[in-house]
Structures are given as structure tokens and as C-alpha cells.
Amino acid sequence: MHSSRPMLSRTMRMAFWVTYDHAGKLLLANLAAVLAFLLLMSGIAILIGRWPGGLTLIPALALGGVLFAAALAVVSFLAAWISALIDRPESRRHSLHDYLATALKHAAVLCVPMYLAVVAVVCSAWFYPVHWGLTMPWLGYPLGAIALWSGVMGILALHVLVPALTYPHPSFWRPFRIALLLTLDNPGYTVGIAAVAFLGLAISTIATPLLLVYPLFWAALTSSGYELLARKYEAAACGASAVETPDDTKDDYLNRGLQDLLFPWKG
Predict the structure, then answer these.
(1) Residue closest to 104 by CA, chosen among 58, 52, 69
(2) What is the pLDDT of residues 145-166, one digit of tens each?
(3) Residue 226 within a domain
(4) What is d(CA 197, CA 143) in angstroms, rounded to the nearest whole number?
């Protein structure tokens, strides 16, 4: 397997240039989506403050599910928009409306099983080691480790799953299957994508205003990564050499460098 470092570099280059070329509308879309999410959070915070007798487990899980669905809708919306911009004209399959409609439809349908899976993994990673660790350590700790490992794999696969939602699929489970298989087949690359995403989150947390544009950063990174993974497997049908030495000269987001940034009028 060839090194994932060159592909990760190409991903970051594509993510930068697609955002650079369409910064105005992408920032506007990002801020509109984030504002809607913040308004929803404010409404939920007010509801929690006025909840009679304090918030119990079931309502808390329900409100958490609403926030999870809203967050998934935000990143799916941005990923769909960026996927439409990345899609090459000579192989364009869908319009922007198709991308947005497909992504939001999948996000609405899949948010419930995804949220239940998140709750199950978090509860299992805590419950088994804490409650079974002393009485049955031979079972509690292994089950906790499995749950923790499942959570790590889920986080990695999420970086592939969200951009996969922007494409139509013949079955309900196909996006999950694609995300899992791509993650398992490209572990170094998906770990690299997740590391860059978490580094961006850390920087955004330190410089708090950057959190407002972090969804755009994450969507651009993951959508670019998914596009290059798709090209990798398309090229694999043409032979190993096509995979090892991709031709970026005809791709407007990959054939530019520092000179194009400093002197864009010369491009």
C-alpha cells in the first residue's frame, strides 16, 4: 500500500482551493447554518432552564438527539455544497439542488440510528469497566475496550460517512458500509484526516471565533478526502501506476501552488 501522506497533502490542497475559490458563498452558507444551530441551542437552553423539576434522563437524551440531528444537518449541508463544487464538469452527475436534497434526506433518516449508536457506545465504554470491572474483570474490561474501540472506529468512519451522504444510495445501510470499508482499507489516510480535523478543532477552541467557521473547514476537508478516495478506486481499475502517480494537471483544485495564491491574476 502506498503512503497516505501524499494523498493527505492533496486533500488539504483541494480543500484549501475549493474554499478559496468560493469563499464568499461558502462562508455565507456556513454562517447561516451555524446561526440556525446556535438559535436552536439557545431555545433548548431556555427550555432546560424552565423544565419543571429538573431535566430527567429521557428528556435529556431526546434534546441531545435534536442537537445531534441539527449538527449532522449542518455538516451534511456544507459537505453537499462543497461536493457539488468539487465535482468535475466532465463527470458531473448532479446539480447543487440534488446534492443538498440527497444529503439532507439521508441526514434526516440516518440521524436516529447514528445517535442511538453514539449513546450505546458511550454508555458501554463507561458501564462495563465501572460496574463489571470489580466483580467480573475478565468480562467487564474487554467489553469496555471493545466499546471504546468501536467509538474510535466510529469517529474515523464519520469523516467518510458524512460526505458519502451527499450521493444517492440504493439501500439504507449502504453509506455505513461504504464508510466502514473505506476506513478499514485506508487506515493511515483516515487517521490523518481525523488528526487534521482535531488539530483544526483545537486551534478553533483556543481562538474561539474560529469555531464559527470550523464546520466549513471540516466539511471541506472530509468532502475533498472522499472525492480523492473515489478517484483512487476509479484509477485502480486502470492499473497500479494510475494510483501511484495521479495526474493532477487537469484538476483546477490540485494543479495550483503558492504563486497562484500570491499572484492570482497570473493564473
Answers:
(1) 69
(2) 999 999 999 999 999 999 998 8
(3) yes
(4) 28
